[in-house]
Amino acid sequence: MDHIRLAPLQNRNTNNGFKIISFVPIFDLVAIVITAKMGKYMKKRRNIVFVAKSLDGFIADKNGGLDWLQSTPNPDQIDMGYEKFIGGIDAIVMGRNTFETVCSFDIEWPYSKPVFVMSRTLDSLPKKYQNNASLVKGSITEILSELEQKGYTSLYIDGGTTVQSFLKEDLIDEMIITTIPILLGGGIPLFSELPRELEFEHVRSELFLKEIVQDHYRRKKVN
Amino acid sequence: MDHIRLAPLQNRNTNNGFKIISFVPIFDLVAIVITAKMGKYMKKRRNIVFVAKSLDGFIADKNGGLDWLQSTPNPDQIDMGYEKFIGGIDAIVMGRNTFETVCSFDIEWPYSKPVFVMSRTLDSLPKKYQNNASLVKGSITEILSELEQKGYTSLYIDGGTTVQSFLKEDLIDEMIITTIPILLGGGIPLFSELPRELEFEHVRSELFLKEIVQDHYRRKKVN
After folding, report:
1. Given CB atoms, is A167 within the 8 Å cutoff of chain B?
2. Of A157, A170, A165, which Cα lies nearest the Cα of A222?
3. Structural domain spans, chain B
4. What CATH class has B43-219?
């Protein structure tokens, strides 16, 4: 929608006759307000979690392992909505832990969207990955603002610690949670302590492979 | 099926001729084996959890409160399957905490089925409740055996600590878990540490009040 906003602003100085001033600024003002509202709507920030957890809320088992994610046979290797989800986001934000876990897999770089790695301790990413990911530093709101300026507003927030930090600041807008029907009895938890309760609304639930429930929740607007 | 088992056993002594012996005992044996198998199936132990939890797995908030259970408007006071569930069980087993919480509510005794209170510390239940509930003592397996002898085999296992103790011994067969779409960020957890992973299978999911997902899981048989 940028052209709507920019066009009237750029043309204004060259048409400065009295008659024009009398109504064009009003039209402009209305156009700017409508555009700003539409722009705000269309560019609305969406920080989204897409994660698999056990019935008891863990994202990795007691040894940090992920084998239990495969406990339900998936002969056709269905992706449970992952590609569709990735297609709808602008970029991925993850913590150092998740980044290093992904790097440790002996696979090609798995992400088709820009990846931003939040880290207080790293000064740079390993050279091997500098084409795949970028280091971002600062508070979460500073990082979100930096990414927004670059046009990344629909963000996949990944990794336990990162999701927990975002939730602590009430900066998660949606959560797509896939529950594997297993009690791990310990491990790395998806959720942690929060300074206050956060209400969500139910968007959708879907059953995959007759065993795995995926629930989509959206943060309830506080008006 | 009791008449099938009892009838041949009672009639046997009166028909003891040679010809009868030659084939009737075999028929009897088959009948007894089939009946025992069917009886075992029909009398199969079912320890079932029916519980509401927050998105982050708490059954009570940081102050032990339950107000968040009402966060979704329920104008018609639908019971989300509770009465149907209660209709299908023989008795309720709860811990002292849950018992005392129920007693603290200023309501009539809410249970229509026999209630058994597990407690190591209580010597007897308060007189006021002796018609409503019975104290049971011993290990979980001793208590289950005692209840089974009394004909109670389909049990509603209630209360965080009690559910956790049953799960530690892999003695929960089904879980009906209702998830309220709120992150409490702390409180009394439904699940706790387990000595080993427990796999479940998905039975059914249902959405209530457009907001609340209820999932029914059954312990996966280990053959």
Report:
1. yes
2. A170
3. 6-39, 43-219
4. alpha beta
